[in-house]
Amino acid sequence: MDIQLKRGLLDVCVLAAIKDEPSYGYKIIKDMKPYIEMSESTLYTILKRLEGAKMLTVTTAEHEGRLRKYYRITKSGVKRIEDFKDEWQEIMSIYRFVTKEDA
Amino acid sequence: MKEQFLNELRSRLKGLPKNEIDERISFYAEMIDDGIEEGLSEEEAVKRIGTVDSVVSQILSEVPFSKLVKEKIKPKRTLKGWEVALIVLGFPLWLPLLLVAFTLILVAYIVIWSLVIVAWSIEFSFIMATIGCLIGCIPIFIHGGALSGLSAMSLGLVSAGISILFFLVCIKICKVTINFTKKILVSLKNGFLNKE
């Protein structure tokens, strides 16, 4: 996939991975793996960016005698997903335009 | 294995702000622990993250240069009065040196990118030659005869062919240059990290 396109999608995918319940780094990567691959370092950068944009909050909780960070989506994070859906409608109509000759 | 990886990573990231290093290290530590909990061996869990080199260069490509420089020039202790005075008085010396360093970097960039500009200029002139010859061959046909007209036209077709081929070369040169400048930036940042 085109690297610019992927970069734009990753943010929304990470938000989608924590949408239903708070999640942690390893699980986010695992949940996304069937759809889109990403390295640990990339995830770190995205989480930092989303935290800076107040689209998620971070809490530290104990797990099996060690600390683990959990990421919880905020209202503006949910809104980002909704915006993405709207944008995607536009992209889909462009897609139909681009592929209409093939049909 | 895990400790070795994290220690090496920590020492390689020395030029970053302390709290940022801690945060990144604990992030990778958590990733490795979670991998082990999922049933991976310690070695596999570390391997999943990648080599220290690949992690460092990815981090460096994301961290802005200004942050590295800021961390670098931040004094490790508060400066004594006479040291401040020395720095201020010494500015006729270090300012030109700093300017020279920045100019050299700038010049290097300009030199590299002028290659790209030259390539595209050549491409442009081939395209113009193609258009010129193909349009020009019509009056030459009429006034100069079939032979001159044909040779003008063939010249146009030849430069059309060259310009198409050279277009691909230009794209390649562009890509190589972009990769090259990226690499230079990362190694420049690396220099900032390690010199201590």
Give an overview of the whole structure:
- The complex is a heterodimer of chains A (103) and B (196).
- The longest helix of chain A is centred in the C-terminal third of the chain and has 25 residues, at 75-99.
- Chain A has helices spanning 3-17, 25-32, 40-52, 75-99, and strands spanning 56-63, 66-73.
- In chain A, helix 1 crosses helix 3.
- Chain A is 59% helix and 16% strand.
- Chain A has a single domain, classed as Arc Repressor Mutant, subunit A, CATH 1.10.10.10.
- Chain A is α+β, with helices and mostly antiparallel strands.
- Chain B folds into two domains: 2-74, no CATH class; 89-194.
- In chain B, helix 2 crosses helix 3 and helix 7 (91-144) packs antiparallel against helix 8 (146-194).
- Chain B starts with a helix and ends with a helix.
- The model of chain B has no long low-confidence stretch (mean pLDDT 86).
- The chains are: A alpha+beta (103), B mainly alpha (196).
- The A-B interface holds A 24-27, 30, 39-42, 44-45, 64, 66-69 and B 24, 26-28, 30-31, 33-35, 37-38, 48-50, 55, 58-59, 62.
Largest interface: A-B, 16 and 18 residues
Please, what is the CATH homologous superfamily of chain A?
A: Winged helix-like DNA-binding domain superfamily/Winged helix DNA-binding domain
Strand/helix succession of chain A: HHHEEH
Shape assignment of chain A: elongated
Rg result of chain B: 28 Å
Q: From the coordinates shown, what is the CATH architecture of chain A?
A: Orthogonal Bundle
Overall pLDDT level of chain A: 90
Percent strand of chain A equals 15-25%
Distance between the termini of chain B: 26 Å
As residue ranges, the low-confidence spans of chain A are none
Number of H/I helices of chain B: 8
Structural class of chain A: alpha+beta
- Helical run tally of chain A: 4
State the assembly state of the protein chains. Answer: heterodimer
CATH level 1 name of chain A:
Mainly Alpha
Give, in spatial order, the strands making up the sheet with the most strands of chain A.
1-2
**Secondary structure: helix percent of chain A:** 55-70%
**In percent terms, what proportion of residues of chain B is strand?**
under 5%
Question: Regions of chain B with pLDDT < 50 over 5+ consecutive residues?
Answer: none
Shape of chain B: elongated
Radius of gyration of chain A: 16 Å
